[in-house]
Automatic annotation (TrEMBL), chain A:
Organism of this sequence: Aquibacillus koreensis
A GO cellular-component term linked to this record: plasma membrane
Molecular-function annotations in GO: ABC-type transporter activity
Protein name per UniProt: ABC transporter permease
Statement: the UniProt record of this protein carries the keyword Thylakoid: no
UniProtKB/TrEMBL annotation, chain B:
Family: Belongs to the ABC transporter superfamily.
Annotated Gene3D superfamilies: P-loop containing nucleotide triphosphate hydrolases
A Gene Ontology molecular function term of the record: ATP binding
Protein name: ABC transporter ATP-binding protein
Keywords noted in UniProt: ATP-binding, Nucleotide-binding, Transport
Species in which this protein is naturally found: Aquibacillus koreensis
One Pfam family, short name: ABC_tran
Domain ABC transporter: 2-232
PROSITE patterns to which the protein is assigned, alphabetical: ABC_TRANSPORTER_2
SMART domains named in the record: AAA
CDD domains found in the cross-reference section: ABC_DR_subfamily_A (cd03230)
Length: 290, 310
């Protein structure tokens, strides 16, 4: 049990958090983020209550919540690659990685600490925005459990994209290339999956015209479950995409596919990072080519 | 102690390290000398468990670097040739972080950090930010960092490179203290005088091959195939030249550019042969005034064997 905790409470995590939060930039970042979110929310309320039909009601409040949540999810997915893709390669470029690797810190502990410390700033941002969500509660329309689900959703997206960022940072030597690769991956999740979903759905409809409602086409489902924004939207609006998803014949709600696949992706990415952080010291025995 | 057995590292067809064999006894200081790209850093990286060998292995305090790297890391203090420091870390925080990373309990770290800062002469800098230190101070801090878990073996890759003469002397003083503390030290440099003074043993490496190892005298005799004898004669120099040229062990006899009576005799015989040569010259009535052997220092030999490098 103690070993488990030392994975999370360890010198690298302490150091990272200390150094990251020591800079004034971090606090400025949070300040501007909250200021913008606050302004957007207040502007939304002002416009709806002044020009909208019947003032700012529960439906408007629900819409505001969705705008905030999806906007924040977008922000999380855009910021995570930038914060995590330099986690290991940045140390390598600073020439501090070699020293770190000769210490007693396990690879697991280094990788997890790097991930969590990089995400700590985003988590702080998310939690700092909680009071903004309280505006929504003033007007009703959203249950507290929905807020919890939304936060869980954002944390999982962050964890998975962050794990991919750390993985690319470990296997690619240059931070710049690791960052571009992670952004490419993130774009695939946000846009690529949507395009592939539409294409695969069109194909399945074209080849099986009779099976649109209740077919057995897994591919469109597999693509769309990887899209965090669409999945989050289907939680708020269960009727959204219901016609298209019927064609897949999979009755699982989209979010369950999302949760399972994102956990799996994160775990695989972290295992790869941990295994590739230090060189395998085993001498490879290869057959000589004559 | 360190034991390196048939250690080889290849990058494709390029051999960075070729079948290196070396034993460094406990408490001794071993200097690894060679031109840039000779294989010193490759050897050190393998010993520090940062690089897997292609074949062969090395043992640090009995632990195999290829099979038990975790144990090896416990016993070594490693200082790479190039290293960075974290911005916004203060000197004592830097040492505390690495102490914690090596699993040194907090109380012990608080006790050992002031001692280490004193050893490397950085006590008055303990609250300074690390990235604001001079290069020499950073090198000393890195050395202190490598000692934080009290390792028995120190692997120091070019610890004095890029330092001004004063900083070099300070670094040498610290290394001397570590030697007194009976640490087993393997240290590399491409500057020989720096090492020959403080090392018990030296190894000269070139193109990944260890071409000589041992103490300074052993290396001289290993590397110096021909000795140069200085012979000055009072008169009849042509006769003396003819006499020396007749000896089977003499390769070449040359007259000195400035002193007409001085000969440079390139000789490959043993010390006993040399005694016989002098005896024979005297019985042949060669009027020898002086007979001496050229004292070449290690640096001359090193320059001679690596002259094709630059």
């Amino acid at each position: 049990m103690e070993r488990f905790f030392t994975l999370f409470i360890n010198p690298v995590l302490n150091k990272e958090i200390k150094l990251r939060f020591r800079s004034f930039k971090s606090f400025l970042g949070i300040f501007f983020y909250l200021a913008i979110c606050g302004l957007v929310s207040l502007a939304f309320i002002y416009i709806e209550s002044t020009f909208g039909y019947g003032g700012f009601n529960a439906t408007d409040s629900r819409n505001l919540f969705m705008v905030l949540a999806i906007g924040q999810l977008g922000l999380v997915t855009f910021m995570t690659p930038g914060l995590t893709a330099g986690a290991i390669s940045g140390e390598r470029e600073m020439q501090t990685l070699n020293i770190l690797l000769t210490t007693q810190q396990s690879s697991t502990s280094i990788v997890l600490s790097k991930l969590f410390s990089s995400l700590a700033f985003l988590v702080l941002m998310l939690f700092a925005s909680l009071p903004l969500y309280s505006i929504v509660f003033l007007y009703g329309g959203v249950s507290p459990s929905m807020v919890v689900i939304t936060f869980g959703f954002q944390l999982l997206s962050m964890f998975t994209i962050g794990s991919l960022g750390v993985m690319f940072s470990t296997i690619i030597r240059k931070t710049m290339i690791a960052t571009i690769t992670t952004y490419a991956m993130m774009l695939f999740f946000l846009v690529g999956t949507l395009i592939l979903f539409v294409i695969s759905l069109r194909f399945s409809m074209a080849y099986n015209p009779g099976s649109v409602s209740g077919g057995n086409e897994y591919l469109p489902y597999l693509f769309i479950m990887l899209n965090p924004i669409v999945t989050l939207f289907t939680i708020y609006e269960p009727s959204a995409f219901s016609y298209e998803l019927q064609a897949t014949g999979i009755e699982w709600p989209l979010w369950s596919g999302f949760v399972i696949s994102y956990f799996l992706i994160a775990i695989v990415a972290l295992i790869i990072s941990i295994r590739r952080l230090r060189p395998s010291m085993k001498v490879k025995t290869r057959k000589k080519k004559e | 102690m360190i034991e390196i057995i048939n250690l080889t590292k290849k990058y494709g067809s390029f051999t960075a390290l070729n079948n290196l064999n070396l034993t460094i006894e406990k408490g001794s200081v071993f200097g690894f000398v060679g031109p840039n790209g000779a294989g010193k850093t490759t050897t050190f990286s393998i010993l520090a468990t940062l690089l897997a060998p292609t074949s062969g292995t090395a043992y640090v305090n009995g632990y195999d670097v290829t099979k038990d790297p975790k144990q090896v890391r416990k016993h070594i203090g490693y200082m790479p040739d190039f290293f960075g420091v974290y911005d916004q870390f203060k000197v004592h925080e830097y040492l505390d972080f690495y102490g914690a990373s090596y699993g040194v309990p907090s109380k012990e770290r608080q006790a050992i950090i002031p001692q280490l800062l004193e050893l490397v002469n950085l006590t008055d800098k303990k609250d300074s930010y690390v990235d604001l230190l001079s290069r020499g101070m950073k090198q000393r801090l890195c050395l202190a960092r490598s000692l934080i878990h009290d390792p028995e073996v120190l692997i120091l890759d070019e610890p004095a490179s890029g330092l001004d003469p004063r900083a070099r002397i300070e670094m040498r003083g610290i290394l001397q203290e570590l030697k007194n503390m009976e640490k087993t030290i393997i240290i590399s440099s491409h500057i020989l005088p720096e090492l020959s003074e403080m090392c018990d043993y030296l190894g000269i490496i070139e193109h990944g091959n260890l071409i000589a190892s041992g103490n300074v005298n052993q290396i001289q005799s290993q590397l110096q195939a021909n000795k140069i004898l200085f012979v000055s004669v009072k008169q009849d120099i042509d006769n003396a030249i003819a006499f020396f040229e007749n000896d089977l062990n003499v390769q070449l006899v040359e007259r000195d550019d400035k002193d007409e009576q001085l000969l440079h005799v390139s000789y490959e015989g043993s010390d006993d042969d040399q005694v016989q040569l002098l005896k024979k010259a005297i019985t042949k009535d060669i009027p020898i005034l002086t007979f001496s052997q050229k004292q070449s220092n290690l640096e001359d030999i090193f320059m001679e064997i690596t002259k094709g490098e630059e």
